[in-house]
Specification:
heterodimer, A: about 350 residues, mainly alpha, ABC transporter involved in vitamin B12 uptake, BtuC, two-stranded antiparallel ribbon, about 70% helix, about 5% strand, globular, B: about 350 residues, 15 helices, about 0% strand, ABC_BtuC-like (chain A), membrane (chain A), cell membrane (chain A), transport (chain A)
């Protein structure tokens, strides 16, 4: 990000600049990473296709069963994981930047817990309909409750985040209460849904998350320079000619749409939105939207692949594995940094 | 130290004293109520007879069952609240709660693991939960170690990240093993929500050896902690050893929180709420904040327990759920009022 980058295209106050070398590098690495993860996700697992069969199926020359497996089961599932992961990563980055809190991700302010509570109540009272709508209703309720705490300039103030924490606790209590009300089998089924899942996804959901990404992602990327300026402090940002209110409100709405889309497609998947921005920011940039989305997508897809490959009769929900993978990776990064700092401290002495 | 305390007390010492005594009176009333109400209601007049010759009446048995339960509730609530207040100061983040220490996740994880192992199956909940809670907290502390030497402003972020990472990994482990072992899940879902039912004198006796030393040590640390409320560099220049203070405060908070969690289950929300309510209502000095938060935490847990026992007799609701149901709207409206005040000014 050092040095001026010439502008490619300019419209009103928006300027599109040539990408920096670091961004290009990220893009290349990211593309390869996503392709590799996609390949692995399609080929691994009990009912996975061998690479040769995969190519045949892609060209439409395989047996009908494998054709069906690829086009109706594995591919939509993998694409859904990619889309939801991207949405969660980007939404988490925007929420953390707007609330200026490393914990201010959609999970912490109660969107996930609200979705869980909505889903559980839906399962209790309206078991006939799809659970996703209950989750959506719960998440929307949480957002409505959060609305009064929105700052005058659309920022996620500290008290709004705290209100989110309160709502989060309340929603978790509702979920736990519901879990104690029902029989064991039903409780376990609920618990399985609550960890988020990507089983039985079809093209409808892929289209949904794709549409949401297509709407929200370009808008957020156009805003990313302004959001980055916000990290300097609100006064500095507005004195640099940054319309605070419109920037923050637009970013908030777009990120919320992303988070809701993710809930609708995969249920409350924990931890991706919290951890992806932190991992993305490791290279020093304040707001790494695209990288955060990329890491979220890779995290979710690899966790989903792991659920398919792990032995055992019962499949774990993907949310359990995202928390495990993401948490372990974060812990490892902290640990590596610890070792590095220690050697650095010892060197001069 | 005395000068600093006087600055906080100043000429407002009377309102503080009256606020604290108000809380104490409320707590005493609640404790009395908690002994009398429940599936079997006792009359206050009966209380007068308790010190007379004991006949093994039915009421006396009920009373004997309720006394340790109320005591454990108060002790655990106070311990969690104090731990929450300290952690919020150490992390410099209002969202921090004792769960961030890794204590809750660690306690759950070791409970799940040890109850599956044959040799540890007889240990009882407390001894199954405690080692994991202490280990997890120690691990989080080590992961966030470096910054305590250098005193950088980024230290709290590191602490938070380490806590979130460890909690997530352990929580996922618990969720996975619970999903894979249905019989485990059945006994576990009640402990997970936090419950005070079935507690006896043994629980009181396993609780206090951890709480009292930690509370005393924390009280001795108060002057340094007050300076930590400023910022790291100011505290350093005023002669506070950041490393020692934060390590000792961390240790105290861990002991308080781990012992309480091992007995009553993960009630982390008590710590978050009472820390906030104390800071919204009392002056910003740990001499006042710690007792205030302890009283608020004890009140919250007792009130939740009373409601849990009386709302749906003869069934008991889970105390942890009642705490969230009571505390969450409270926190919501307090913070909402604060944000509204910020908007007008």
């Amino acid at each position: 990000m050092i040095g001026p980058r010439f502008s490619v295209w300019r419209w009103g106050s928006f300027t599109l600049r040539a990408p920096a070398p670091a961004a290009l590098q990220t893009a290349v690495v990211g593309t390869f990473g996503v392709l590799l993860a996609l390949m692995l996700s399609l080929t691994l697992g009990e009912s996975g296709l061998s690479p040769a069969r995969l190519i045949q199926a892609l060209r439409g020359e395989a047996e009908p069963y494998e054709q069906w497996l690829l086009w109706q089961s594995r591919l939509p599932r993998a694409l859904c994981a990619l889309g939801v992961g991207t949405a969660l990563g980007v939404a988490g980055a925007v929420f953390q930047s707007l609330s200026r809190n490393p914990l201010g991700s959609p999970d912490i302010i109660g969107i996930n817990a609200g979705a869980s509570a909505g889903a559980v109540l839906w399962l209790l009272f309206l078991p006939g309909l799809s659970v996703a709508w209950g989750a959506l209703a719960g998440a929307v309720c949480v957002l409505l409750l959060l609305l009064p705490g929105l700052g005058p300039q659309g920022q996620l103030s500290r008290s709004l985040v705290l209100m989110g924490v309160a709502i989060n606790a309340f929603a978790i209590a509702v979920v736990q209460f519901a879990l104690t009300l029902v029989q064991r089998e039903q409780a376990q089924q609920m618990l399985g849904y609550l960890a988020g899942g990507l089983v039985h996804r079809d093209w409808q959901q892929v289209a949904l998350i794709g549409l949401i990404l297509a709407v929200a992602l370009p808008g957020l990327l156009l805003l990313s320079r302004r959001l980055g300026l916000l990290a300097l402090g609100r006064d500095m940002a507005s004195s640099l000619g940054n319309p605070l209110r419109s920037t923050q409100l637009t970013a908030l709405i777009l990120a919320t749409v992303l988070a809701l889309g993710a809930v609708l497609c995969a249920g409350p998947v924990a931890f991706v939105a919290l951890v992806a921005p932190h991992l993305a920011r490791r290279r020093g940039q304040q707001l790494a939207l695209l990288r955060s989305g990329l890491i979220g997508a890779l995290l979710l897809l690899s966790a989903d692949t792991l659920t398919l490959t792990l032995p055992g009769t019962q499949r774990l929900p993907v949310g359990v594995l995202t928390a495990m993978l993401g948490g372990a990776y974060l812990a490892w990064i902290l640990f590596a940094e610890l070792l590095r700092r220690k050697t650095k401290q010892q060197m001069p002495g | 130290m005395t000068a600093e305390v006087r600055v906080h007390y100043g000429n407002t010492s009377r309102p503080i004293a009256s606020k604290l005594s108000l809380l104490a009176i409320l707590l005493a009333l609640l404790a009395l109520t908690s002994l009398l109400v429940g599936a079997r209601w006792l009359s206050p007049a009966w209380l007068m007879q308790i010190f007379e010759v004991s006949d093994n009446s039915h009421e006396l048995l009920v009373f004997q069952a309720r006394l340790p339960r109320a005591l454990v509730g108060m002790l655990a609530g106070a311990a969690l609240a104090v731990a929450g207040t300290v952690i919020q100061a150490l992390c410099r983040n209002p969202l921090a709660d004792p769960g961030l220490l890794g204590v809750n996740a660690g306690a759950s994880a070791s409970l799940v693991t040890l109850s599956l192992l044959p040799f540890a199956a007889e240990w009882g909940l407390f001894w199954q939960a405690l080692p994991g809670a202490l280990l997890a907290s120690a691990f989080v502390y080590v992961l966030s170690w470096v910054q305590h030497f250098s005193g950088q402003s980024q230290a709290p972020v590191r602490l938070i990240l380490a806590g979130a990472a460890i909690s997530a990994v352990l929580g996922a482990y618990v969720q996975a093993s619970v999903l894979l072992n249905p019989q485990l899940f059945d006994g576990f879902r009640y402990w997970m929500a936090g419950s005070l039912s079935g507690l006896g004198w043994t629980d009181v006796h396993s609780l206090w050896p951890y709480l009292i030393p930690a509370a005393v040590l924390l009280w001795l640390l108060v002057p340094g902690l007050n300076l930590l409320l400023l910022d790291c560099s100011t505290a350093l220049s005023l002669g506070v050893s950041l490393q020692r203070h934060s390590a000792l405060a961390w240790l105290c908070a861990t002991l308080l929180c781990a012992a309480a969690t091992a007995v009553v289950g993960p009630l982390a929300f008590v710590g978050l709420v009472s820390g906030h309510l104390a800071r919204a209502w009392l002056p910003l000095s740990f001499r006042v904040l710690l007792p205030g938060a302890a009283l608020i935490g004890a009140i919250l847990v007792l009130l939740a327990d009373i409601l849990a026992r009386t709302l749906m007799p003869p069934r008991e609701l889970l105390t942890g759920i009642m705490i969230a149901v009571l505390g969450a709207p409270f926190l919501y409206f307090v913070t909402r009022r604060i944000s509204g005040r910020g908007r007008t000014s």
